[in-house]
């Protein structure tokens, strides 16, 4: 198939709900491969989510370890808020007076974009209200507070929202992103941390205030929520989410596809579980799983293939070989599926 669109142009078509020329295949990039999009934090947020960890703008310490492949998580049992009714005494919004947004925007674009013709400039607006709250209190106390001190939690969420709105407004004005990334995990592998009704009452209206600003600028909205979160997706589509990333296989992705079509792009859709025969593995079985995923999710657009074998040991030569089969098969299908 002869294609005319660059990978970025084609990818953004999917993000806007339009029909692409071919199926975008997401990649983490590398020395010679530009990714489809950035998933970048603007400089004002800091680098605490990076492999070195650090302290976030609210004072939560993030740590990393080899066991979690150096992904940064709030430091265990180091909670800065133990009683939600005392949040006004403990938490103070970050002071950004004097921050040079214009200079930061130029520096960040240079930092994150290797090739502007291939990679969409997608940035976080730091609207992750739920994760921030859990970072303050931990899951046990935080979830209890949601049910026992609802009014206090709502007032704290409004306080966090003001910070998110400040970041989002300036991000849109100075950075001119090609996509807005809302990262707020509210689900585990098996089910959401909170009920769909609580999610819809507590979080969706606050997300909407940020996303309304983004939609006014006609910037595609990417929503990150891992695990089985399909019950939380419909209200997010209602308030403007264009792309669900990563759409993991614990969800009924076929049903989501049928319900929303290209209005909600599915970014993900693939996992290959490491077999009990490992490291013995059937290459054809791996490739057939990729083909099956395309058959289920690629029709009529609205699909970005992303996924790999379920292992974090990315440097293992056998893992790399299997992921190579997956990427090769996906790239072959990418250009033929819409012929």
Automatic annotation (TrEMBL):
GO molecular function, one term: transferase activity
GO biological process, any: porphyrin-containing compound biosynthetic process
Keyword Transferase attached: yes
Domain annotation Uroporphyrinogen decarboxylase (URO-D): ranges: 139-306
Claim: Ribosomal protein is one of the keywords in the record: no
SUPFAM superfamilies in alphabetical order: UROD/MetE-like
Keywords: Transferase
Protein name: Veratrol--corrinoid protein metyltransferase
């Amino acid at each position: 198939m002869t294609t005319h669109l660059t990978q970025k142009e084609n990818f953004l078509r999917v993000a806007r709900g339009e029909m692409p020329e071919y199926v975008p295949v997401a990649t983490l990039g590398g020395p010679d491969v530009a990714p489809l999009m950035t998933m970048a934090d603007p400089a004002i947020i800091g680098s605490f989510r990076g492999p070195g960890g650090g302290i976030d703008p609210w004072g939560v310490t993030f740590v990393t370890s080899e066991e979690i492949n150096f992904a940064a998580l709030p430091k265990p049992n180091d909670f800065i808020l133990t009683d939600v009714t005392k949040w006004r005494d403990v938490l103070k919004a970050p002071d950004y007076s004097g921050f040079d947004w214009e200079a930061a925007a130029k520096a960040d674009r240079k930092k994150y974009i290797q090739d502007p013709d291939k990679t969409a400039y997608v940035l976080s607006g730091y609207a992750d209200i739920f994760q921030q709250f859990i970072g303050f209190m931990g899951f046990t106390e935080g979830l209890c507070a949601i049910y026992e001190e609802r009014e206090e939690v709502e007032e704290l969420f409004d306080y966090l929202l003001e910070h998110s709105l400040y970041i989002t407004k300036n991000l849109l004005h100075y950075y001119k992103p090609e996509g807005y990334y809302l990262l707020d995990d509210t689900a585990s592998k098996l089910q959401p941390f909170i009920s769909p009704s609580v999610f819809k009452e507590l979080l969706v209206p606050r997300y909407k205030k940020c996303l309304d600003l983004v939609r006014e600028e006609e910037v595609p909205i990417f929503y990150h929520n891992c695990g089985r979160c399909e019950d939380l997706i419909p209200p997010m589509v209602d308030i403007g989410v264009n792309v669900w990333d990563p759409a993991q296989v614990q969800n009924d992705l076929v049903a989501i596809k049928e319900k929303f079509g290209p209005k909600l792009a599915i970014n993900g859709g693939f996992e290959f579980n490491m077999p009990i025969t490992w490291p013995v593995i059937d290459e054809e079985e791996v490739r057939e799983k990729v083909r099956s995923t395309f058959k289920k999710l690629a029709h009529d657009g609205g699909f970005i293939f992303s996924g790999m074998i379920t292992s974090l040991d990315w440097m293992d030569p056998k893992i790399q070989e299997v992921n190579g089969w997956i990427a090769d098969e996906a790239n072959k299908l990418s250009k033929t599926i819409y012929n």
